[in-house]
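Task: sequence design from structure.
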């Protein structure tokens, strides 16, 4: 009891500090994605759905009747269980729902009741929102998104008195777990900027250049926007045509070069590719006016020119990941009009060019939010990376937000070291002009797919891209949905090999063969994604071996391996370079 009393005093002291810090934050700006603006937008959107149901009392009464009947079934079965009878649950969690994996969620009648009541209510609310008639598709999509945020937050697993694991930990440690958890929350608040960034992994466990991004190579070129890395060969002979990788500038490039056993870069080098990597700068306010066109010219086209000079070759093979792939497609369309044939093939990894089916990210893109966002970026000249990280986490709150709230703040545990989550936390700033163009021209107006976008005075036409293309999309992608990527691939004019990987936007891409994890599907072209999936062949394991022989237009020709230090472009520094180490 003495220890419990001491811990309660410590908890009160820590709580006071935390609530004071939170109170200060509520007085800060109400820009897009702030708590105040999002709550207001959610209330407005869900209110429109509610008005539809209220306007039809009989339909509303029927829906409510179904909910109340489920509650009655739950209460009746709970009473029978209390009397010692074995009863089947009214509802069970979906497979893979890790919130309720603790045995006491089923063994204890108290926790089982809370679990089932939550599942009944959440599924009922989701169903009626998704089936609401009388609202446009965008309003319905926004309503479903905001409802999912609310339902994820309201899960009984997130609260100390309705989570069996937290209750046990509190009793076993005399509330020491809550004291540690409050200290973790205070630390996260102190380390965060305008938005709370929940620590998802042990940030002291990894270092770029020591544990991650350690594939040997040299930085052989740089300008305001990029450093270009040429990796050292590991084979005596290499393919004649080099491979230039274009990662997204929204994150650091080393998602493709994590620890060696997960490094796609190392895999490509070991297959005999001469690999070059674009490492984007982490921009500050001085680069505020760098445009999407600048990223094409000073990024992709400058990299191609540097590789041409370094190797004395005209043709190169390209690879673009996520928004890096969107930029690559734009550059290919630009080059096609200009008669520039240096980029001989392209691999796209979860990259969109048609944003009509871009998923929940469209919730954040309308004229009002874009205007507010542009005003906010104008103050500093960039969008802070923490805001984009918050948006991506909101796409999967059940997996990327609330498990860490429970682990860090309620159980008082430190997060587990995980290279992917370390990379996810290592965010980058986004220059105002480029980011505003990207959101407005691609997401909001979808001008590239319509043939209406212009770069450098050239109207871009994706159908003029006639080179071989390897198109990868992932089955559970929340950022670049499979349907969106597949639809966009139909706009290219050349041959396209479609491959769908298991899992999502990151894990589906970073899936090395040695892990023997997930699977991929491949098949002949089809008009729709559904038709393609219906005829595709499933192969266990990683898609990487499928990509290697089919990723360039002349895979057979080999030449002696190239030393990065032996070319006309003299090394500036060792890989991974200095750009990737810059912190936001």
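Answer:
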């Amino acid at each position: 009891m003495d220890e419990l009393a001491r811990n309660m005093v410590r908890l009160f002291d820590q709580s006071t500090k935390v609530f004071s810090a939170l109170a200060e934050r509520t007085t800060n700006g109400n820009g897009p994605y702030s708590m105040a603006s999002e709550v207001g937008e959610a209330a407005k959107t869900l209110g429109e759905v509610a008005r539809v149901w209220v306007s039809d009392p009989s339909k509303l009464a029927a829906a409510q009747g179904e909910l109340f009947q489920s509650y009655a079934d739950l209460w009746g079965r709970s009473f029978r269980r209390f009397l010692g009878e074995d009863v089947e649950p009214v509802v069970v969690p979906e497979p893979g729902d890790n919130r309720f994996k603790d045995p006491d969620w089923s063994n204890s009648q108290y926790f089982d009741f809370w679990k089932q009541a939550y599942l009944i209510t959440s599924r009922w609310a989701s169903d009626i929102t998704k089936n609401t008639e009388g609202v446009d598709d965008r309003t319905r999509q926004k309503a479903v998104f905001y409802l999912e945020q609310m339902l994820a937050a309201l899960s009984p697993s997130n609260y100390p008195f309705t989570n069996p694991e937290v209750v046990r930990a509190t009793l076993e440690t005399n509330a020491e777990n809550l004291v540690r958890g409050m200290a973790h929350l205070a630390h996260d608040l102190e380390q965060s900027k305008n938005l709370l960034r929940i620590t998802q992994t042990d940030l002291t466990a990894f270092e770029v250049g020591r544990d991650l991004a350690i594939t040997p190579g040299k930085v052989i070129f740089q300008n305001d926007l990029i450093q270009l890395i040429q990796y050292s060969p590991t084979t005596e002979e290499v393919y004649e045509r080099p491979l230039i990788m274009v990662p997204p500038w929204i994150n650091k490039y080393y998602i493709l070069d994590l620890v060696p056993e997960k490094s796609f870069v190392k895999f490509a080098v070991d297959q005999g590719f001469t690999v070059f990597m674009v490492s984007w700068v982490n921009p500050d306010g001085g680069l505020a006016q760098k445009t999407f066109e600048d990223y094409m010219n000073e990024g992709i086209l400058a990299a191609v020119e540097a590789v041409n000079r370094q190797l004395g070759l005209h043709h190169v093979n390209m690879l673009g990941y996520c928004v890096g792939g969107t930029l690559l497609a734009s550059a290919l369309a630009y080059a096609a009009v200009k008669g520039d044939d240096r980029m001989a093939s392209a691999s796209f990894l979860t990259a969109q060019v048609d944003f009509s089916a871009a998923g929940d990210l469209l919730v954040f893109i309308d004229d009002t939010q874009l205007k507010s966002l542009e005003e906010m970026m104008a103050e500093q000249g960039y969008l802070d990376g923490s805001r984009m990280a918050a948006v991506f986490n909101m796409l999967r709150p059940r997996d990327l937000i609330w498990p860490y709230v429970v682990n860090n703040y309620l159980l008082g545990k430190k997060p587990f070291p995980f290279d992917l989550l370390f990379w996810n936390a290592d965010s980058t700033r986004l220059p105002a002009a480029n980011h505003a163009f990207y959101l407005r021209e691609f997401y909001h107006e979808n001008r590239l797919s319509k043939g209406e976008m212009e770069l450098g005075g050239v109207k871009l036409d994706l159908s003029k891209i006639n080179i071989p293309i390897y198109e990868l999309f992932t089955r559970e992608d929340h950022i670049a949905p499979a349907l969106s990527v597949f639809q966009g691939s139909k706009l290219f004019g050349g041959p396209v090999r479609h491959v769908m990987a298991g899992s999502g936007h990151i894990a589906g891409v970073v899936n090395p063969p040695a892990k023997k994890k997930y699977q991929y599907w491949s098949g002949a072209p089809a008009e729709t994604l559904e038709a393609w999936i219906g005829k595709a062949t499933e192969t266990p394991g990683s898609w990487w071996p499928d990509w290697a022989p089919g990723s360039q237009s002349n895979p057979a020709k080999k030449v002696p391996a190239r030393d990065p230090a032996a070319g006309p472009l003299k090394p500036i520094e060792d890989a991974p370079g200095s750009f990737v180490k810059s912190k936001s």
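The radius of gyration is 26 Å.
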